[in-house]
Design brief:
The structure is a homotetramer. Chain A is mainly β and about 120 residues long. In chain A, the strands form two sheets. In chain A, strands 4-3-6-1-9 form a five-stranded antiparallel sheet, with no helix packed on it. A four-stranded antiparallel sheet of chain A has the order 5-2-7-8, with no helix packed on it. At the A-B interface, strand 2, strand 5, strand 7 and strand 8 of A face strand 3, strand 6, strand 7 and strand 8 of B.
Chain lengths: ~120, ~120, ~120, ~120
């Protein structure tokens, strides 16, 4: 796999509690991937921690002309991402993509949000 | 139309509920466009989804030396953007612009905000 | 003035209400300027609106090796910035600076925050 | 030390109060550093203020293939960072890193969040 796109998100944290009901109000950490091209993207995500070797790769297909908002909460293969734990991620793709990072935190009684375009890393 | 500026926002979501009254406290997803130049900008926005072909183009004019904060909630031609649905967007312009993405989410009793400069995509 | 640094913020909005007391909890829109160099920076800010010609320049000095977090709320010369009004801004400097945009919105009972590094514009 | 990576965060502020209990809900200002390389990173952080010379350097090691989410609240050598005080920071490293800035503000009864990728400064 030739990585044409490589993006990094230095922040990562799945809040361990939620208020409100349903999937939409559950605290979540999300990587939004946009594939505006005409070829399906094979996306690989490595997850970095403070005290152990990286996990992954977690692999996803983002079809041509589609976006997928992937929750770290849902990662399960090859392993789950623990809650209440600092992490970071590197997203690589075999075709150009755009990556944005969003968190919804509903631990306290009103939700909070953060978002940033990820860093387009060419290291 | 020659696209001099092309920007991407991988995150997009119109929360389906609001607390508080009035347009200003209604949950909204916004694309802020700044045209600092001396020529009106013709702006086209394509909206990408997870499970269907992109919608649009939605077309706007941002006059010279003006900013417009355009709500995805208000898009109606050629179609409306559904609420509670993941999407992404690509903004192209025939003159240079700057694009920033903001959400106000008032589903729970205190509003939340997120914002990021969009990604200046040259793919 | 030779503009070595030019930055743009397409989002801008001073919420017209606040909860909580004191300057620190007053709803505010801020441009954070960092001058890490050894020469004082002369900074000029132009403010763009949706329906009128730009206001400014608003001029500030950010001394060498200092940061200033300047609130649009406090702008008064040559004019004040109206609340509850969409705007955008362009920040130019005669020496290199770094610019970040932050809002604190305390209209509802718990404050909300947004922040993004501004766009380093070389148009 | 040869700075291969230099990043700037123009915003910085440690809220002086918190609601909720425990380290995770304490108001904090964080610099997230990702070292995706195979060499440990020696990271130096300088902290800039509005009215005095910069503090630091504060030095940290971010091991190879690790992330560290470092709270400005915990800085103590060579000095502590005061709360309720505007600051900014410059992060340099002897190997490539990626830097993201996050704040959790729980002064009022529901927490607020902000985050942005820092500015990759090559001045």
């Amino acid at each position: 796999m030739k990585a044409i796109g490589r993006w990094a998100i230095a922040e990562g944290y799945i809040p361990g509690k939620s208020t409100g009901s349903g999937r939409e109000l559950t605290s979540h950490e999300t990587v939004c991937v946009l594939n505006m091209g005409d070829t399906d993207a094979r996306v690989e995500i490595a997850v970095y921690f403070s005290d152990r070797e990286p996990a992954g790769p977690f692999t996803f297909t983002v079809p041509a002309r589609r976006t997928q908002h992937i929750r770290f909460n849902d990662f399960c293969d090859p392993e789950k991402i623990p809650v209440n734990t600092d992490f970071a991620s590197v997203i690589t793709s075999d075709v150009p993509i755009v990556v944005q990072h969003t968190r919804l935190d509903s631990r306290q009684e009103a939700l909070a949000l953060l978002s940033t375009i990820a860093f387009p890393s060419n290291y």
